[in-house]
Each structure stands twice: as structure tokens, then as C-alpha cells.
């Protein structure tokens, strides 16, 4: 599929920019619906357990999940986009807040199963290669933090201790 899957999470996303002229799927991951509505945008699908939103939305475009689950609502939205054939994703509001959710939202495909013994240095997850222009480059991650629309140094949000 040549389209773009936009996923909006519960963290403040800044301005949500949707590319014009390409097929797109817009998914609100739980509280991301609030951000889409505030910017006058409509979600094609609304995915999550709706604990962040504080209510279960109405409509036939709702994919409700239990509160007790292994994946974040954003990762469930990514999996939904993948299931529908999308391979290019733009995520808004998925980083910041809880570090465990930030990390979970970065994983694309785990390489171990729950309960499996892992050792130091073993790869336990991966960030996808959805951007064709960068797929041939060595593995890397673009990580940025913005506050009030201004880029800031992300070092203050990372714990480097072992």
C-alpha cells in the first residue's frame, strides 16, 4: 500500500499535519481522539481501552480493547495499520510521559516471547524500517522532544543509569 497511516496518541502532539493527495488512514489511539477533535480532524478508526479518554466513544469505527493487555494503545493502533496493509506510519503524541510507554511505542516487532530468558546484549525488539529512504542505512533512531512547539534537548527525558 502506498498510503500513510497517521496515529495520534494521548500525549500533546503539537500541530497534526496530514499529507494531501495520498491515501491515508487516521487512527486515534485512546486519548488521541481529543487532540484530533481539538484540531477539527476526524479519525477513521479509534483504538484503545479508553482509560486516557475517560469515555468510550460511539460509532462503528471503534476497536475497543481491555485495560489489562500487553501492548500500549498506540502499538495496538500500529498493528491495526499493519493489518490493513500500511507500511508508512506517522505517530503523534506517542513519546513522553511514562518511559515504559515511550519505549513500548518505539518497538515494531518483538524478537522474544513473554517468559523467554534473555541475556545481556540480546536484541529484544526493533524499530521498523518503514521509511524507504532510510531502510538502506545502518540502524538508527530519530528521537526528538518538543515543548510548546519548540525543539528541546531530549537528554533530560532519558535515564542513562544502568
Task: Describe the overall structure.
The protein is an alpha/beta fold and 162 residues long. Helices cover 16% and strands 18% of the residues. It has a 5-stranded parallel sheet, with helices on both faces. A two-stranded antiparallel sheet has the order 6-7. A hairpin with a 2-residue loop joins strand 6 (145-147) and strand 7 (150-152).
Number of strands: 7
The CATH topology name reads Rossmann fold
Sequence of strands across the biggest β-sheet: 4-3-2-1-5
- Quaternary state reads single chain
- Give the SSE order as H and E letters: EEHEEHEHEE
Query: On the 0-100 scale, what is the average pLDDT?
Result: 74
Helix content: 10-25%
The radius of gyration computed from the alpha-carbon positions, rounded to a whole number of angstroms, is: 16 Å
Classify the beta-strand content into a percent band: 15-25%
Major beta sheet summary: 5 strands, parallel
**CATH class category label:** Alpha Beta
Please identify, by name, the CATH architecture. Answer: 3-Layer(aba) Sandwich
Structural class from helices and strands?
Answer: alpha/beta
Taken together, the total number of domains comes to 1
**Which regions have little confidence, pLDDT < 50, spanning 5+ residues?**
127-135
**Count of runs of 4 or more consecutive helical residues:** 3
Cα shape: globular
Distance between the termini: 41 Å
